[in-house]
Amino acid sequence: MTKIKSIRTRVWNWTGPTVPPQGNFCTNASDALWDKGDAMASFRFHQWLTCEVEAEDGTIGIGNAALAPTVVKKAIDDWYAPLVIGEDPFDYAYIWEKMYRRTHAWGRKGIGMTAISAIDIAIWDLMGKLVNKPVFKLLGGRTKEKIPVYYSKLYADSIPAMQKEAELAQKHGYQAYKSRFGYGPKDGMSGMRENLKRVEALREVLGYDVDLMLECYMGWNVDYTKRMLPKLEKFEPRWLEEPVIAEDVNGYAELNAMGIVPISGGEHEFGLIGCTDLLRKGAVSVLQYDTNRVGGITAAQKINAVAEAFQVPVIPHAGQMHNYHLTMANANCPISEYFPVFDVEVGNELFYYIFKGDAEAVDGYLQLDDDTPGLGIEITEEHIANFEVIE
Ligand SMILES: [Mg+2]
């Protein structure tokens, strides 16, 4: 039996070139404030946390977190690492409960749960490496030959620019695409028309034989969404994502109950109980927890079971290997979100610059290797000149 010897956390702060996003490229929760400053500052994140859990025999499991990395690092270093060091990694469920219960007063949502997630993902990677099996094999094995993915980009831009991006993406064989709305309540009727024109323009290029998902990133409210849903219906969106802020669960439920367009969400929800509440209230027709926030792979597997019982499909937020392994091992996870490899823009792309081994989509699918142990990623120093690394 090998025990956990140490935990190393590093914040990777991107200092390299970034593509500046155009105005109105995605609505977000700060829009309601009529901010005069940079309202998108809450959307862009150019930092990432890596969390390496090392066993006594020198094997290292890798976890990560994208939410408030410098604060999550502090939480791990000061609070969670001492709870985990000395434990047997195969006692993962016990370790999870220990982290969760010892910090329950402040840790069960937000920063605390993100820290738990990073450590838990690293422990699963470590277990896989110790028994020489990919994580999806530890989770029950392959439920699909390969994983269909949806192209997740298409930020709001000029109509010709969005149509061009959709045309280029189409050449790669995707069967599903997600686009972002650029306008919300503060933009009034003219903004509504701008939103609708872009959905229509995308359907013009993509046709109706592929799925089109629409993302609000919490930038709308219930009233605005109620007015938009009937106007969107004719474009047959697969879902409308996070129309309102994450905490307005009743708002989600009300919109979903309208039955016009399926409502999706959950990427800013935490834990088994939080996600179960979304399901029980009928708040989402598609659940999109983010494994590196929701409580890691240990929590995600429990949530998958509950969602399956509710017959609500789970499509984890973001690309990344921890999500793909869960998707591979669960029949109720039909497809994965996929951020195509691009220059650094909003920050979704950063993990391609920190890790190597992330699966890349080919003809609209990605594959996991049966023989690569753990999650299959390594930290690469290839782009280190473009990072300030805080240890
Ligand atoms: Mg989203």
TrEMBL record:
<dbReference type="GO" id="GO:0016052">
    <property type="term" value="P:carbohydrate catabolic process"/>
</dbReference>
<dbReference type="InterPro" id="IPR029017">
    <property type="entry name" value="Enolase-like_N"/>
</dbReference>
<dbReference type="InterPro" id="IPR023444">
    <property type="entry name" value="L-Rhamnon_dehydrat"/>
</dbReference>
<dbReference type="GO" id="GO:0000287">
    <property type="term" value="F:magnesium ion binding"/>
</dbReference>
<comment type="similarity">
    <text>Belongs to the mandelate racemase/muconate lactonizing enzyme family. RhamD subfamily.</text>
</comment>
<dbReference type="InterPro" id="IPR034619">
    <property type="entry name" value="L-lyxonate_dehydratase"/>
</dbReference>
<dbReference type="InterPro" id="IPR036849">
    <property type="entry name" value="Enolase-like_C_sf"/>
</dbReference>
<keyword id="KW-0479">Metal-binding</keyword>
<dbReference type="InterPro" id="IPR013342">
    <property type="entry name" value="Mandelate_racemase_C"/>
</dbReference>
<keyword id="KW-0460">Magnesium</keyword>
<comment type="subunit">
    <text>Homooctamer; tetramer of dimers.</text>
</comment>
<protein>
    <recommendedName>
        <fullName>L-rhamnonate dehydratase</fullName>
        <ecNumber>4.2.1.90</ecNumber>
    </recommendedName>
</protein>
<dbReference type="Pfam" id="PF13378">
    <property type="entry name" value="MR_MLE_C"/>
</dbReference>
<dbReference type="InterPro" id="IPR046945">
    <property type="entry name" value="RHMD-like"/>
</dbReference>
<dbReference type="InterPro" id="IPR029065">
    <property type="entry name" value="Enolase_C-like"/>
</dbReference>
<feature type="domain" description="Mandelate racemase/muconate lactonizing enzyme C-terminal">
    <location>
        <begin position="159"/>
        <end position="262"/>
    </location>
</feature>
<dbReference type="GO" id="GO:0050032">
    <property type="term" value="F:L-rhamnonate dehydratase activity"/>
</dbReference>
<dbReference type="Pfam" id="PF02746">
    <property type="entry name" value="MR_MLE_N"/>
</dbReference>
<dbReference type="InterPro" id="IPR013341">
    <property type="entry name" value="Mandelate_racemase_N_dom"/>
</dbReference>
